[in-house]
Fold each of these.
Amino acid sequence: NKCDTILNQFRDFAVICKTSEDASQWPTGAHSRLDTFFHALLAKEHPFKELWDIVQKVLLLSHGQASVERGFSVNKNITVANMKERTLIAQRVIVDHLHHVGGVANVGMTKELLQSAGCAKQRYHVYLNEEKKKREHTQQTQKRKVVQDEVD
C-alpha cells in the first residue's frame, strides 16, 4: 500500500513539474543541486510527504559514502604492484595533508620535516632489521614446534 501511495505521489509530482512554473524555471548546470530542487518542490507540499521521505533516503544513499568511495579511486591510482600496507597508508596520509593545505606549494618546510626526511633512510634500515628479526624468530618458533611435535 505504501509503495502504491508513493508511486501515485510521484506521478502527481511529475505532472505538477511539467506544468509548474517553479520547476520549469529551476536553474540547470554545475551549480544546480538535485537535493535543493526536490526540497523546494516536495518538502513544503503536504500531499507528497511519503514521496519526500523516499527521496531523502535515496539522496542520502547516493551521497552518504562519497568521501569513502572517493578514497577508493585515489587508492587505486596510487597503488603499485607489491605495495605494502604501510606504504599505502603513508601515501594516503600525504595525499590527505596535501588536500588539507591546498597543494604542494602550501606545505610548510619546517625544521622537523627536513630532519625527518633526512633520517628516512636510517628509519627504513631499522624497519628492515626488525622485520628480519621477526622472520628469524618465527622460523625458530616453527622449528621448535616441529621438534616438540616429534617428541610428543
Amino acid sequence: SWSIFEDQILYQLLVFLQPPSRHSFRLELFCGTHLPERCSNIRVVLECSCWRTTGDIPCFVHPSKDSETAQRSPLLQTLCTGSYLDVEEVACWVQNSVQTAWQHSPQRQHWQLTVLPSSHSCRLLLSGPSDMQLCAVLVFAVEQGSP
C-alpha cells in the first residue's frame, strides 16, 4: 500500500520470506487454536538431502561419513533463536544488507538513505534533491502452506 502525507510518500511492502534449499518453514499454532501473529512461531525445519543428487553439498540432518556430526545450518546460526525464525535478527540482517547495497548504488549521489530504527520490520527513508521524502516499510511474512 502507499499513502501521501504532506512532504512524504509512505510505501508499505509485504516481503514474503522463502526458506533456502534444504530448509522449510512451519507455522506453529498458538495454543492449538489460531495462527501466530509473530515470527517467533515460525519453526525452521532442516530437511534431509542424503538421497538427493547434491554433489558436495552436505546434509544438515545426518552426519557425513567423514564427520561425527551433522553440518550446521547458516540460517539457524544467523537468523534464528533456537529452531525458530527471529524477526529481530531478520530485520537487522535486511537493514544491514540494504545499507551495504546502497553503497554501490548510483542513486546515492543524489539521494540519502537513512535506515530508521525498527525491530520487527525494515524502515527506510530516502531524502533527495526535492523536499519530498520517500519512506518504505518492509514487513516480513511467511506464506501459510509454503514448502
Amino acid sequence: GRGLKSHAYIHSVQFSHHVFLNLHTLKFYCLPDNYEIIDSSLEDITYVLKPTFTKQQIANLDKQAKLSRAYDGTTYLPGIVGLNNIKANDYANAVLQALSNVPPLRNYFLEEDNYKSIKRPPGDIMFLLVQRFGELMRKLWNPRNFKAHVSPHEMLQAVVLCSKKNFQITKQGDGVDFLSWFLNALHSALGGTKKKKKSEW
C-alpha cells in the first residue's frame, strides 16, 4: 500500500528511500509524494520479476546455446543457473532444476496462458504450486537475469504449505519422495484425474 500508515510510506519517510514497486501491478511509485514513476530504464526490473516468453522464443530454446551476461557481469546459460540454498532445501532444488530441463514440461510452464485460466474449487491452495513453479521456470530461463542464480523462496513456501509441512526448507528431505509428491500434486492441481488401482481378482 501507499497510504499514510502503510509500511512503504513510513519507510520512505524514515529512511529516505523513495522509489517503490507494487508487486501486483508492476508499477513504480515515488513516496511519500505518491506519484507513479514512468521510466523505461525500470523495465529491466519488472522483466526480472515477471519474465515472459513468446511461442517463438520457447520453440528456439533448444536450438541455441547462447550465453547471457547478468547485470553483475557473470555469464550464464539460461536454464542452467543456480538455485539458492536457503537452509536445507538442496534436495528440492535438485528436483526443480532437473524438471526445469524437461522440454515438454518446461515449455508448458514458460507460457502462463497454458494454465492461468484453469478453474479451481474455492479455497483450493494446490494451484499455488502450479503458479509458483511457472514463475520459477520463467526465472530460471530468463536471458536477462541480474545474477546467475535464482531464489526458489516463493516456490518452496508453496511446497511447505501444500505438502502440509511434509517437505520443509529447514529440514533435509528425500529427493525421490519429493519428486513423486510434486509431480502428482502438479497433475492434480492442473485438473488431472486420480486413477484407482485395479483389483487383482
